[in-house]
Amino acid sequence: DEIVVVDRVAAALRVDPRAGDAAVGAAVGAAVGDAIREAVLAGGPGVVRYRHVADGLADLCASVAAGDGGRRWAWRRLGWWPTTGAVRPGEVVAAALAGRPAAAVAALAALARRGRLAAVLAAVAPADLAAVAEAAAFAVAGPRPLAALGGAAPGAVGADRVGGAAHARAAALLARSELGGPLAAWLAAVAGGAPAAVAARSAAVLVVAEVEPALLVAPGAPGGGTPVDGVAAALASAAAVDGAGPAAAGAGERAPALAGADDPAAGPDERPAGRPSVWGGLPFLLHVAADLDLAGRVAADPRLAGLGLRATLHRAGVALTGAAPDDPGVLALAGCDRPELAAPEAADAAGVPAAVDGVAADLLAGAWARLGDRAPDLAGAAERVRWLCGRRAVVVADPGWVEVRLLADEVVVEVRVAGLDLDPGWVPELGCVVRFTYEGEVHRA
To answer: Are 148 and 91 contacting, i.e. CB atoms less than 8 angstroms apart?
Structure first.
């Protein structure tokens, strides 16, 4: 949801002294409400707007790294700023991200996309990143210690700890990651000794949480390590040959206090317009995917495990609709803000098309089971897909955030009663928040 923070407003009103308490209260409320509305419309340094939590956290991290505290008043109001005394920028970043773990990885990905992640990481110590990685892993996998996500012992994150299959998977994951490059450069700056091994694992957890979060709960290959092991080894190897990475200035030192400029130089991005799709109802099937425990099914099926959950959902969406692979509705079903995230982890194994077709059929059948006796009498799969998923929408997608804006005219009572168009919210196995909104006026014949 959009976040709006207003520093202060001034409201003027005249009150009839003969009016009762209820009338006076109503007048005060109306005046203050009008003042807030006018302040938001006017904008300026006293108004801060974020599209969602990850957008705000990215702004906080970039600003703290740049020494810009112009919006500190807003971050305090939101509870994002530490209540203790002066702290390092890295501690501020870690506390803000770890305190909102469902948005932490999305914020880091947004920073990478804006070219600001390296500057933020330069202020972050290994202990800071470990706190963020542990929180991000908890948001996906529950209360598992960070060490349990990788089999390698501290100080032994090397290629000899990981099998060939894990190496190949790690390469595929890093090819889809926006965090991998900046994190490898950061590792080069903090390399040396056991802490570097812990840092490599922390960085690997964040990469996996960005690209294929379901792997944080997937078992490792026998004798080959977990997916986190493979990515940690690959990052450590990249860091070993990239000694020219950015220096971690301030990673272990107390930095100067933040400035308090009233007119910040760089604020949050503008609200995006989104991309249209005629398959806006396709993400309704995320509820069915949860009913089917599709993440567990993908992990257990050798044919689908090489695809990963995102690619399985993506291909199932294409199979159901015949839409283009970059259709926003299809990408929304996979929790993707960019097509690269839906790329498979490995080359197709034998039987993959049949396995994907089976997933697609089960998703549609599961939706019809939810509808029960409210389901329309449509015999063919294509008709059912058009009726349920064929809805005009605009999809707004950021890292870790997908908003599907549907037309209010196209609300279907049966779909609503079945719970298919209710917000999925945080979908841990996709590392993404998915929202459905209906916009516009309703016109009924």
So the answer is: no
